[in-house]
Design brief:
The chain is built from two helices and eleven strands; from the N terminus they run αβββββββββββα. It is mainly β. It has one domain: Porin, CATH 2.40.160.
Amino acid sequence: MKWKVCFWLLGLLPGFLCAQSPRRYDDQFHAWYVIMGNHRLTSKWGLHTEVQLRRAGIISPTQQHLFRVGADYRLRDNIIFTAGYCYVYTGSYGKQPTSLPFNEHRGWQQVLLTHAIGRARFQHRYRLENRWLERYNSTSQRNEVVYVNRFRYRLQLTIPINKVEMTSGTFFAAVNDELWVNFGKQIRFNVFDQNRAYAGFGYQFNAACNVQLGYLNQLIFKSDGIRVENNHTLQLSFFCNLDLRKKDAAQP
């Protein structure tokens, strides 16, 4: 029953955060296109790759471009540690635009834990981000780079629909919720940075690859403590986890 309580509590978070008035909320429609993979190089080590094209509309304008890489260390099949680098370009978009587009460089570290209850598979993702953000002065010249930290926790549930396990030809449903918390001396009004709630359906092509289509609700709490983006997002994702080990080494 513990996992039911966790999902119930996470489900209350968007409503709780929205209740912190006075705030200005703006609804927007976005579309995200994602290609991601965790590729095995040895029995213990692997490579994480990720590209996200986030649009403030179906095709344009640009919300964000995100490129993330990392090194995976597999302690066990259900426990993976990852550390890496991420580059993010954020455009000036929507009803609450920034004065200019800006760049962000991140270091990131995470732990990924998975377990199953019956045919349901649970994933817990704990991620720490070290962020260097561009800031501009009144003359639109880059004035400084601000350093902040952020912690993220995501709980995800995946359930196969037409089969008992996630094998080739499986249709499945996936839901998750992720809470984002800022910390550091630069943070004043937006300790709660974001909340993302997702629900979607997918198809498992084979042991390595699947595709998902779903709806993501993204709440972004701006640094002034007043403005909030409520982004209704169509998300199309392609996941491909390649096994690049030599055949003899890949055998159990």
